[in-house]
Amino acid sequence: MRKLLSTLALVFGLSTTASTADAYVVSGEDLRFVAETTLSGSDGTPMALCHLVDFTNALFVPVYTAVQSYALSPDGCTGDAYRSLSAAQFTAMQASGLLPAGLPETPAANIKDLLWGHAWLVLAVIGIVFRALMAFRDRGPRKSKSPDALAIHSLVAMSQVAIADGRIDDAEVQQISSILTRLTGTSYAPQQVMELLSRLNPSPSDIDQIGDGLSEQDRQIVLEAALNIAVADGEIHPSEYAVVSDLAQRMRIGADQFRSAMARISAHLQTIPQV
Predict the structure, then answer these.
(1) How confident is the model at residue 132 (pLDDT cuts 50, 70, 90)?
(2) Which of 107, 186, 204, 272 has the fewest CB atoms within 10 Å, i.e. the most exposed one?
(3) Nearest to residue 229, comparing CAs of 155, 161, 180?
């Protein structure tokens, strides 16, 4: 009897959704399917449980969706007719087994509806995040197009300083490895340095090409790499100073920049524990 009375009340108390529209914006009420029920209309048509929502679409894109209440629909929430349910009515019907158990008393949109119903906000957030990622990608201490090129130029410059006294020994290879790793941000093991030196086979004539195609900031890194090798033993020998000075001139590095590089190297050396 309760089920029959509920059904009759629904049939005789149906409302219809309303909406307004212009050339660009459509807004109004809509029904969104939630679940099937055990209720039937007077003609035996099953009643579906819906969300009754307010919506606004701009140029066919949903920009706002808000759930008003639960509602019952005789056409699977696809038409305009509905019967709105208060919280008390919903609770009573659910307790009687007429509505599915497990649904919350207060209707709430699911994640899909929230995202789709606030598409403008989602798109705005995506745009902001995308721009932030692009800015972060472009930001950095240097903008060299080829980190490998910087490493090679630095390696050749350091090798020119190291061979100024005749040859490159194991200790200098270790120093080159450490300096190259610190200045470029990429790890270079001593064995890898030896392999690169063997492959490049640098000669004094290579000094003419050091710095070509590098940015000003990368040329500064190359100079610092060479200076680090020159002062590795605590002093700069005349032959080493001649190579470093030649490098600075060829890479168009001025006296002020040269002194700044020396100051940074001196500060770094002071942080290294004395053996």
Answers:
(1) low
(2) 272
(3) 161
Question: Which structure tokens are listed for 12?
Answer: 């005789």
Whether the per-residue pLDDT at 43 is higher than 90: the answer is: no
Taking residues 229-257, report their average pLDDT.
83
- CA–CA separation, 204 vs 96, rounded Å? 94
User: Is it the case that residue 227 has pLDDT exceeding 50?
Assistant: yes
Q: Which two tokens stand for residue 118?
A: 């606030």
The packing angle between helices 147-162 and 170-184, to 10°, is: 150
- pLDDT value at position 196? 81
Burial 4-23 (b: 16+ CB within 10 A, else e): eebbeebbeebeebeeeeee
User: Could you give the C-alpha distances from 76 to 30, 45, 132, 252, 265, in angstroms and in order?
Assistant: 12, 10, 44, 77, 76
Domains within the chain, CATH numbers bracketed: 2-121 (no CATH), 147-270 (1.10.3680.10)
Q: CB within 8 A of 202, min separation 6: which ones?
A: 155, 156, 159, 160, 163
CA 44, CA 78: separation in Å to the nearest integer?
17
pLDDT confidence of residue 201: 74
Distance between CA 179 and CA 173 in Å, rounded? 10
Listed in sequence order, the residues at least 6 apart from 171 whose beta carbon sits closer than 8 Å to its beta carbon are none
258 pLDDT band, cuts 50/70/90, is confident
> Tokens in use for 80?
């305009």
Closest to 179 in 3D by CA, of 237, 265, 121, 94: 265
Cβ neighbors of 86 (< 8 A, separation 6 or more) are 69
Continuous segment of H or E residues that includes residue 249: helix 238-250
Q: Higher confidence at residue 41 or residue 67?
A: 67
